[in-house]
Specification:
By secondary structure, the protein is mainly beta. The chain has a single domain, classed as TolB, C-terminal domain (Neuraminidase, 6 Propeller). Helices cover 0% and strands 43% of the residues. The strands form seven sheets. A six-stranded antiparallel beta sheet has the order 2-3-4-30-29-28, with no helix packed on it. A five-stranded mixed beta sheet has the order 1-20-19-18-17, with no helix packed on it. Strands 21, 22, 23, 24 and 25 form a five-stranded antiparallel beta sheet that branches. β10 and β11 form a beta hairpin. The protein starts with a strand and ends with a strand. The relative contact order is 0.16. GO terms for molecular function: monooxygenase activity. Keywords: Monooxygenase, Oxidoreductase. This is Peptidylglycine monooxygenase.
Length: 341
């Protein structure tokens, strides 16, 4: 196993502050972030009539090829809310996913599709963008990994360049299950354990092709790190983000974005922020988080500063590099939008 543990770069001095006031018209609006990756919150974005279009936990968000923003919530009056980038509701659908948790978009053009994980139904669903069910990935009983269906609690998916599907069992036994595009189980790796190749709260997963060959980036949320594996499940690298209990890794351009559910540890409730890493896996900016500081090549522990979020669960980056943040257990708030400044 060719394992490389990320240890950062030499110490860097960062002049940008986490929050600084700027003036826009009559209102003073803060900027959040560091090192030229700064953002201003768009107040009231996406807020709807909760009696008609309620949300419970806002779990994840994606953007389709038409530029529409899809929000997944476990509110069964409307599991999916579809917005334009200005925050206007375009459509809504879905009443059958009480444990709606992970949302992945894949395919091209008219063949775009969604993958939804349901932590209560213990299944994964492939749907059209308007909610038509195309395929169900049921409890992987044939793998022999689980004594009962309830032990399998999938949290996230990703799609490989060849169409294969990977499912992260982030709330269950911590396996990464590998399926063919037509839903046949091909293998698995990971699982719960103490060694580096094992996972604890494998909450998120994505395919990373920034360096050429496709690899899998997988969250090890309890241990505050991402782990990079080959597509066959061989551990390559550990990217430590101390103090950041990271959710799904999101690749946009050369950067890696992630919502941090809690900071500085999983026992610290009502906290969290959004973190941004460059192609070399160095944290360059935190939105609602402390300034990233490296000493002797090692990232110093991060924390929430200021109190901007409550349990951020996912980040979506649009074509203009604006970001949208979905929050879990946050008082039924709608997503936040932050414009790149």
């Amino acid at each position: 196993m060719n394992r490389r543990t990320f240890i950062g770069h030499t110490a860097i001095g960062i002049s940008a502050m986490a929050v600084k006031p700027v003036f826009s018209g009559k209102n003073e609006a803060p900027l959040y972030g560091h090192n030229g990756r700064t953002y201003r919150q768009v107040k009231g974005w996406g807020e709807l009539d909760a009696s008609r279009f309620p949300v419970k936990d806002c779990h994840e968000m994606v953007q389709d090829s038409k530029g529409r923003i899809f929000l997944l919530t476990n509110e069964t009056r409307n599991n999916v809310l579809i917005y334009n980038t200005r925050g206007k509701l375009i459509d809504s659908w879905g009443k059958e996913y009480p444990g709606a948790h992970g949302l992945t978009i894949a395919g091209k053009g008219k063949d775009e599709f969604l993958l939804i994980t349901d932590t209560e139904r213990h299944e994964v669903y492939k749907t059209t963008l308007d909610g038509k069910l195309l395929m169900t990935l049921d409890f992987p009983e044939t793998a022999g990994l689980y004594e009962k269906k309830e032990a399998y609690i999938p949290t996230e998916t990703t799609v490989a360049p060849n169409g294969d599907i990977y499912v992260a069992d982030g709330y269950g036994q911590q396996y990464i299950l590998h399926y063919s595009a037509d839903g046949k189980l091909k293998g698995w790796f990971g699982g719960r354990g103490e060694g580096d190749k094992f996972l604890d709260n494998a909450h998120g997963i994505c395919v990373d092709q920034r360096s050429g060959d496709a690899t899998l980036l997988i969250t090890d949320r309890t241990r505050c790190c991402f782990k990079r594996f080959t597509m066959a499940g061989e551990l390559l690298e550990i990217i430590n983000v101390p103090g950041a209990c990271v959710c799904r890794p999101v690749i946009h351009g050369d950067l890696l974005y992630a919502a941090v559910l809690r900071s500085p540890d999983m026992n610290n409730a009502n906290s969290g922020f959004v973190t941004i890493l460059d192609k070399e896996n160095r944290v360059i900016s935190n939105i609602g988080g402390s300034e990233p500081i490296y000493r002797d090549g090692k990232l110093q522990p991060l924390s929430q500063q200021p109190s901007l979020f409550k349990h951020p669960h996912d980040v979506c980056v649009d074509r203009d590099e604006n970001i949208y943040v979905a929050q879990w257990a946050s008082g039924n708030v709608y997503p936040y939008k932050f414009e790149r400044v």
